[in-house]
TrEMBL record:
Regions crossing the membrane: none
Name of the protein in question: T9SS type A sorting domain-containing protein
Alphabetized UniProt keyword annotations: Signal
Organism: Chryseobacterium gallinarum
Every Secretion system C-terminal sorting domain range: 402-471
Amino acid sequence: MKINLLSVGHSHLKVVFAIIFVLLSTMSYAQDKVYVSSQTNQITGFCALCFMQNGQNVVGSNENDYATMILPLGVSGRISQTLFFPATTKKITKVVIGIGSGNTVLSLQLLGGVSIETFMGNISNNDATQVDSSMLKLAQGSNRGTVELVPKKPFDRVKITLASGILGLNDGLRIYYGYYLTACGLPPFNPVYYYSFNGNTEEAVSGLNLHPKDPDFTPEYQDNMICNQGLGTSSLNKAIQLYSPPVSPALDFTISFWAFSDKIQATPGFSPLINIHAFGGDVKIGPNYIKVNGGGSVYPHMSDTLEHYVFVYSNNRTQLYINGQKSVYNEIWSPGAVNTPKPIYIYLSRGKLDELAIYNRKLTDEEISELTCSYGIAEFCHPYPKNLPLKTAVPEEVFTVSPNPTTGRINLDGNILLEQSEISISNISGKEVYYSKFRSKTIDLPATLPEGVYIVTLKTQAGKMYSRKVILSK
């Protein structure tokens, strides 16, 4: 699309430049890739010729080597690979997994047997999802692409499962890499105003920028805040005072931000204080208190680090949340003059402020908890919110055969019940070359077997079957 700026009216120019500014602001946020740090893989069900090849290749930042899941057509088994990530310390925008095939052009239909699930520790987030068009990113006619998802809960691992032999024996599913992106992007639930304070006081949604009252109140920025930079004062005699143009009021609203007030002794005129005013609501945070809406009630609170605060106003009542948890501060209050536009106002002295998001509606308790957890650092989010019941981790069933390759002796192990099971070994043509009831975890392969690839199959007393590939090398 071409825009002839000379033919556009002055008011339209403002709109055009505002759109360009918002797009550039959104795209300019720095994003960091945090790659997979380790992996495990598993084969379940009866799958005589299933195997995972070079599973370790998915670890690290090399995006061109790969692990391969081989699953023949028509089998009832499945292969899964779990990708482990380092501990999260920043806000996660999405997870990206590089996939591909050797010769087959990828398509959504071809990948119908691939699913993704996130975990925190051994606890599933109950979000197992078959790869669909919203997750799959493919270039036309290509044999490589990505699966992209935005986890809704804290996680430290992602499990990829291939079922039903979709890709066939000779052209397996390749997993190239996995990483999550961290960035100073928009918080969830669509705030109407958002200030990242990454070296400026620009507003990323509608361009409602903040400006200092005069040069004495010019903003200062500090590194290593919640997400890159944030507002911060280091001088005992420095304050920051910022105003926006007047904004229309809202009947209900929510104010979210991270803040910390210094505990050192005040100097005349510069007591430690963080003050945020929006939509008629007013929040003050001092060294050992929180005060909402200028009322007489003060909420005692002291912190030694940045904490997440959410202030909600709805139906003439205010509610304060700290680090995603509802506080006892819940009082009746009316903002008054609700039809009068007022500016967003910030005052900061001897403290820190980051990630200010303002909503023109009431966020629910669940949304506030998720908003806090979206930054990836709140303790109550890991491994599960405190207000949710504990879930019992169901351990994965593991069956292993080692060493692999072997010179003739193999050891069976895992967490499944081996007693009263049946052991059979077949060559790659499916011919059985060994059979026995389980007697020992150690098995000596027949000395007459030639070198090659064999399939060890275990059938438990309960009827479950597990298969592992082993290479005999003499």
